[in-house]
Amino acid sequence: MSPQNGPVLRLAGVHKHYQLGAHRIDALRGVDLDVQAGELLALTGPSGSGKSTLLNLCGLIDTPDAGDIELNGQPVNALDETARTLLRRDALGFVFQNFNLIPVMTVAENVDYPLFLADVPPAERRARVAAQLAAVGLAEHAHHRPDALSGGQRQRVAIARALIKRPSLVIADEPTASLDSHTAEQVLALMRERGRAEGAAFVIATHDNRLTARCDRVVNLLDGRIQCAPC
After folding, report:
1. Which range (1-5, 60-64, 76-80, 155-159) has the least confidence?
2. Whole-prediction pTM
3. CA–CA dist 31, 209 (Å, integer)
4. What strands, in cross-sheet order, belong to the sheet with 225-226?
5. 178 pLDDT higher than 90
6. Contacts of 194 (CB under 8 A, 6+ apart)
7. Tell me, which fold does domain 9-226 have in CATH?
8. CB distance 218 to 44 below 8 Å
9. Cross-strand bridge partners of residue 17
10. Sequence-distant (≥ 6) Cβ neighbours of residue 156 within 8 angstroms
11. What string of DSSP letters covers 38-69?
């Protein structure tokens, strides 16, 4: 759940580098970023700008070399891998360009899976899955498998799955890249509506101008630094 006060996510003075043999790559150089509850924030920049690294840090998949990261006001840098995994499971959702749905599961089973892993009681799981599928307009497709759906419908399933645990923050990696313009607009509208309804922030890495034009803020990275102040 989101904190009552302060940002959902805060990065302060974050640095990250990688070593390729004798060559050092400074992927992030002193990044400061706050993300508020219910906000859609677009993360843009050319290849090699640091977007993927920043997305991985926001998603608690990686750790910084220096600087501080807080999620829901909790410092996360010093957490061990088990604690990070539990926090990631409980407080984060993920949406991907290729949907990452499990093909042998139905739509309802895909959305239910995070609740199953979290040992939520079956009756509660069924109720929450039904409500979430209704919210994203897919109630009638609950028993279909992903290969029976369009790309836009699959991304709706992915959004429903990301939000089923009521996370504070959803990390989305190029969620509209494989969609046509009309479907991309629908998916963005859905992310905005569901994010605000559930108080979840979205950090969205994208090259899609259709998407950035509709986000609340755009943060542009270049050579590991934020170039444009959010507006």
Report:
1. 1-5
2. 0.90
3. 23
4. 92-96, 169-173, 201-205, 40-44, 217-222, 225-226
5. no
6. 135, 136, 159, 163, 200
7. Rossmann fold (3.40.50)
8. yes
9. 26
10. 136, 137, 138, 187, 190
11. T-EEEEE--TTSSHHHHHHHHTTSS--SEEEE
Both tokens assigned to 182: 């009309």
Strand intervals (E) in 130-195: 169-173
Among residues of the chain, what percentage have pLDDT more than 70? 96
Residue extents of the structural domains in the chain: 9-226
CB neighbourhood size of 10 (10 A) = 18
CA–CA distance, 78 with 68 (Å, rounded to integer): 10
The encoded tokens of residue 213 equal 């034009």
Closest CA to 11 of 43, 54, 47: 54
User: Which residues partner with 20 through β-bridges?
Assistant: 23
Window from 34-43, 57-66, 121-130, 180-189 with minimum mean pLDDT:
180-189
Six token digits for residue 205? 């890495």
Fill in the DSSP letter of residue 149: S
* Separation CA 148–CA 130 (nearest Å): 19
Q: Are the C-beta atoms of 163 and 197 separated by less than 8 Å?
A: no
C-alpha span between 134 and 156 (Å, rounded): 11
Residue pair 54/28 in contact (Cβ under 8 Å)? The answer is: yes
Count the Cβ atoms, other than its own, within 10 Å of residue 47.
Answer: 7
d(CA 149, CA 32): 40
Structure tokens at 21: 């043999």
